[in-house]
Specification:
The chain is an alpha/beta fold and about 525 residues long. It is built from 17 helices and 10 strands.
């Protein structure tokens, strides 16, 4: 699930160190070590504090401030080691209008709330008109927060290997070997911090952040995986939620968390691909050389045939030693479906270059190299620490074979084995069942054709929340809705709720806008 473009999108699209180095990571985040020491003292007094400093940057929100939040590495052992989370704030510029704090909860797992606040802060300031202080944070292991890694080889940290794309013939032997290797590396090198990366601890960290901010209640905008974090927080702390927005949501079924989200992406790609096909067959693409076919129904067979050809004969790309393979093309398709027409144009250009014997395909940024080791660690660790995954390799082999027939675009990747099948630690917390217990204060917003968090999964969340929620559905494709795709109906609904408290009488449908 996740979150959105380029290198940042790698983490959102995915689902250690030696012991000495991991320990150094826990203690070497400056000024985090001092903040962690202060946190232990504050914990004794029960008063977490934030020491704000200016961190305004060119192109970022005006008057941006930063701080470090000390949190226990293990909430069951508050006397043990502490870590720090990076926090950022943009204060309301209209104190008379201010009504509280709006927390931006990032996607991922592995997304940065501080980066998202930097990206969306100016637009949020404009929409909220001073109603909130805007706050973002980096979850443990992310961005400016305390980090650790698994010591993974570079080849195991590429998007097309962290995502288990099967071999051309559907075989999963290489996926099994890599998944086992990653799980063993994280068990050997990741340490306590990697073991602590989970939704349950992110929710606990948010509650500690609320206390540090001095707010009786929080409002929040969670996106992608952040919607599940937000829903769990609302379930655990219903009395602490004010105005809550879930943007691009998946199924909260506790029996299929994370694994079900990955599986759902196969149908999500099928739902979204016709939008790209119609765009790529439009005669308007002729002028820029990006029209791929005369009819929309010809685009899917063209892409599948090209991927099969690249399986047999990978084509050298602009990145030495990293050819355009069938699976890299399939992943490029998957990534492009998250976006808008700009992403469609990049994908069509890649397809054209792959077809042209004289051209050198330019790989998208998220396929041009490996993720940093800490980023790969937090992505893998969170989904593996949250729930126990099936361990029977034969069951994955059967699921991949069936999925390749039903969903050729994703070719079995969404049903395949992951490192979680070999994860050494069992989940420390039971999954939370989302219910309608609590105030009616959750507004969901969802695209009909979302490739990452499909509509049918969001409907299941809507059903689980019952009277607590309203849902705004857009006749639109792509991943991410609010302040993302220019749909005035959807933006108006969210802004009206967060800023003005306008609660829809019932669920809302926003028709397609030209």
């Amino acid at each position: 699930m996740t979150s959105y473009r380029g290198r940042k999108a790698q983490r959102a699209l995915l689902l250690g160190l030696s012991g000495v180095m991991a320990a150094a990571t826990l203690s070497a985040v400056a000024p985090g070590a001092r903040a962690a020491d202060r946190g232990r003292k504050d914990a004794a007094a029960g008063t977490p504090r934030l020491a704000w400093r200016s961190c305004e940057r060119p192109g970022g929100p005006v008057r941006q401030e930063c701080a470090e939040l000390p949190v226990p590495l293990d909430y069951r052992d508050p006397a043990g080691p502490w870590i720090t989370l990076a926090v950022s704030r943009v204060r309301s510029d209209r104190p008379a209008a201010r009504r509280g704090t709006l927390l931006v909860i990032p996607g991922g797992p592995g997304g940065s709330g501080i980066s998202r606040l930097a990206q969306k802060g100016a637009a949020l300031q404009r929409e909220m008109a001073g109603a909130y202080d805007l706050v973002g944070f980096d979850p443990r292991g992310v961005g400016g927060s305390t980090k650790a890694g698994c010591g993974l080889d570079a080849g195991d940290r590429e998007l097309v290997t962290l995502r288990s794309w099967p071999a051309a013939d559907g075989g999963i032997e290489e996926n099994v070997a890599r998944s086992r290797r990653i799980a063993e590396a994280c068990a050997r090198n990741g340490g306590a911090l990697v073991r602590s990366m989970s939704t349950a601890n992110e929710v606990r960290d948010i509650e500690r952040l609320r206390q540090a901010l001095g707010e009786r209640k929080l409002s929040a905008w969670g996106a992608s995986y952040g919607t599940y974090v937000a829903a769990v927080y609302a379930q655990k702390y219903p009395e602490r939620t004010d105005r809550w927005v879930l943007d691009s949501t998946d199924d909260p079924n506790p029996q299929r968390l994370e694994r079900g989200w990955l599986a759902n992406m196969a149908q999500g790609a099928d739902d979204r691909f016709p939008d790209f096909a119609a765009w790529a067959a439009d005669p308007a693409r002729t002028a820029d050389g990006l029209r791929l076919a005369r009819g929309a129904d010809e685009v899917r067979p063209l892409v599948l045939a090209l991927a099969a050809e690249l399986d047999r004969r990978p084509k050298p790309s602009n990145v030495p030693g990293t050819p355009l393979t069938g699976n890299r093309l399939r992943q490029a398709v998957q990534s492009a479906l998250y976006g808008d027409e700009t992403a469609f144009a990049r994908l069509a250009g890649l397809i054209r270059a792959a077809q042209d014997p004289a051209a050198t395909p330019r790989l998208p940024d998220d396929l041009a190299g490996p993720l940093p080791d800490p980023d790969a660690a937090v992505t893998v660790a969170t989904i593996c620490n949250d729930v126990a995954w099936p361990r029977d390799v034969a069951s994955y082999r059967r699921a991949v074979a069936a999925d390749r027939v039903r969903h050729p675009l994703t070719a079995g990747m969404t049903a395949n084995v992951t490192p979680c099948a070999f994860w050494k630690d069992r989940p420390a917390d039971e999954p939370v069942r989302i219910t309608d217990r609590g105030p009616a204060d959750i507004l969901m917003i969802q695209n009909l054709r979302d490739p990452a968090t499909p509509y049918f999964g969001a409907r299941n969340m809507r059903t689980a929340l019952g009277r607590r929620a309203r849902m705004v559905t857009l006749d639109h494709g792509g991943h991410g809705v609010y302040l993302a795709n220019g749909n005035a109906c959807g933006d108006r609904a969210v802004t009206g709720y967060l800023r003005d408290g306008r609660w829809p009488r019932g669920d809302v449908f926003c028709p397609k806008e030209k």
